[in-house]
Amino acid sequence: MRLVMAATMTLALAGQAVAADCPLHETLYRQPGNEWVLKFFPVPRDGAANQISAFEIYSPGDPATVLEGAIHIPNGFGQPLGSITLGCEADAECTPFWEGTVYALVDGGIAEFPWDPELPRDAQLAPEQVLLPQFASNVWYSLLRESYFAEAGILDTFTFRRCADDE
Prior knowledge:
- The chain is α+β, with helices and mostly antiparallel strands.
- The chain has one domain (2-166).
- It has helices spanning 2-21, 135-140, 145-148; strands spanning 27-30, 37-41, 51-59, 62-72, 81-86, 98-101, 103-106, 109-112, 129-131, 157-163.
- The protein has a 10-stranded antiparallel β-sheet with strand order 6-5-4-3-2-1-10-9-7-8.
- A hairpin with a 2-residue loop joins β3 (51-59) and β4.
- The termini are far apart.
């Protein structure tokens, strides 16, 4: 029994080391039990000055549905706030599909999305999990419901899978 527990802990710690060694803008996260993917990439050149990350959420089974996301640290308030849009035209004003505080699994506990202002954007390290509270309920109450709750459903949590450049 102790051997099994030791092996489990070793694998868990090894997974965390892999996530921690991967720069945030090069990470890919998946949801357990379904195909949804959250992929971080570098902040676009035209991103806001307070934007700390950019990401997409998609299902490999439906390449046409891509939700675009961003995380910002608002001026004067240090909590990381995220927003996700769906199907926005290039020059049109978008209504967010989801907005809220972004959380992560850090050192075995839930914390606000980690961001170290002393490090450059490309040196920010990836957390083990990313949590987007009420993201799943937004999918449930949208036109995506019929497509994405048929089998496994969708969750608020995305778990580190690998560095995105490993694709």
